[in-house]
Amino acid sequence: MFNRDIKNHWTVQYEERGMPHVQAGLVLNPQNWRELDPFILMAEDWFKRGTFSDHPHRGFQTITYIIDGRLEHIDNHGGHSILESGDIQYMNAGSGARHAEEAVDNDIAHTLQLWLNLPKELKSTTTSYQNVFSEDAPVVQFEGGTLKVYSGETAGVKGPLEPLVPFTLSEIQLAEGANFTYELPESHNAFLYILSGEIDAGSSQTNLKKSSAATLTFNDGGVGASRLMLKANKRSRGLVYSGKPIKEEVVAYGPFVMNSMEEIRQAYRDYQEGKFGKAAE
């Protein structure tokens, strides 16, 4: 079985912004999309109500993980939900989404939002949303920790998320000194984000602390499984994401992710002409 190692790693830098967008950090930089394919960017945000009111998207998928606080989702297809710590929301923006993501009441919402690309032939699909509440994701117990599976299959369980393009997402919690070997498809590009604690990861046992992100080696074209070895030096919690590279040109501009600048301009024209529908209220 292919053993994963750390390819690159870095510590997220945060910017204090004041109100209502209190603090922000870029976990995955969109300038590195070729290395990250199929992932475009991931942002970590602390915000109050009024930060992410009605706005459009096209051409990609989002996976929003709520770290703390409460997040209210409203879309212009009549969708409405409140998500709390440990919940996630998946959105296929497809041909055109218009929604709002707001903190509830006086909460400060703390979230991670990942942008996952769509292949060209799926960029015109119908917008859809799916919530996965924390208690609905299966949890695998092992000595010294737990594995919660939101999307994809690992450790004999399948996550409840049903994305348009398959990807994996799991949350791993480890007690101090615990070891765990996480399995994921060897052909998937993958990354790890440390929410708390300190972990030695990969065959090189690279040390990663809180707010560290790391991309992993993978076997492009492989058909089997791979292993990621993890050892916790402190009580730790992290997220592992993986997806199969799409290998298409990406143009990400504002709230849209397309294959060319002309398609970006068309997205702006369609939005300005009202083709994304009414505002999310």
TrEMBL record:
Gene3D superfamilies: Jelly Rolls
All copies of domain Pirin N-terminal, residue ranges: 49-116
Cofactor dependence: Fe cation
One of the Pfam families matching this protein, by short name: Pirin_C
Residues annotated for Fe cation binding in this entry: 55, 57, 99, 101
Details of cofactor binding: Binds 1 Fe cation per subunit.
Keywords associated with the record: Iron, Metal-binding
Keyword Metal-binding appears in the UniProt entry: yes
Family assignment from sequence similarity: Belongs to the pirin family.
The protein, known as: Pirin-like protein
Signal peptide coordinates: none
InterPro entries according to UniProt: Pirin (IPR012093), Pirin_C_dom (IPR008778), Pirin_N_dom (IPR003829), RmlC-like_jellyroll (IPR014710), RmlC_Cupin_sf (IPR011051)
Molecular function GO labels: metal ion binding
